[in-house]
Fold this protein.
Amino acid sequence: MLRIAGQTLNPRLVVLDKDGTLIAFEAMWHGWFERLMEVIASQITLNADTRRGLAGTLGYDPQSGAWDPLGPLTIAATGEVALLIASQLYRYQGKTWEEALAVVARAEEIARATLPVEKLTVPIGDVRGTLERLRRHGLLLALATTDVRATTERSLAHLGLSPLFATILCGDDGIPLKPAPDMALEICRRLGVAPQEAIMVGDTSVDLTMARRAGYAWAVGVTSGALSREALAPYADLIIPDIHAIEIWPEDGEKTNAVQR
C-alpha cells in the first residue's frame, strides 16, 4: 500500500509522466524549444509579425522567457507545437502550408539530432531510488509522455530508469494523446491491470484529466513541474510536492485500511 497526501491507497500500477514529474521540465523543454527556433531562424528570416504571432500562439513572453503554465509549450505534445509553429510561418512568412510544414519538420529533425539530451536531463531528486523502492514493494510502473520516443529513451537510459518500467508510451507511438484516455487505457491493457487498480502521477492538467477519463482510482498532481498547487487543484484528487512524497505504507509494522475507489 501507499500513503499519499494523508490518504492510504492500494494500487497495482503507478503510471508516471516524464517531464516535470521525473525530469526537470524547464531544462529539457526550454532547451528543445530554443534549439528548434535557432534552426528555423537559420533557414528563414523571421519577421516581427511572425515572432509576435509565435509568442501569442505558443504562450510565452520573448522578453522574460516566461511560459504560460496552461499554454501549448507547457502542455502540448511536440508534434502539436510543430503544427502551431507551421501555422505562423504560413500566416506571416508567405509560405504555403506544405512549405511551412517542411521547414518545421526539417528544423525538428536537426534540433533533435543536435540537442544535448543527456546534458538537459536533470532528475528531480533521487528518481531512481524512489522508483526502485516502489518496484521492490511489488508495484508495476509505467510511463506516459507526450515527448517523442527517441528523446524519451535517451533520457531514461541516461538516468538508468529504463528497466524499471513495465511499459512506456510516447507521443509518437500513434495513440491519441493526453488528455484523451487512450494512453492510460492502453497501458492497463498491456499490463493486464484494471483502470480502477491504477493511479496517475503527473504535473499538468492533461495528465490528470487523462487519468480521470480513463477511470483511474486516483489522479495525483505534483508541483515539481510547470503548474502550481492552485492550478492543479481542479484536476487532481491529491497533490504532493514531488514523487518522493509517495510513501510505502504501512511502516514499522503498522496496519491500516486502504482507501478503495
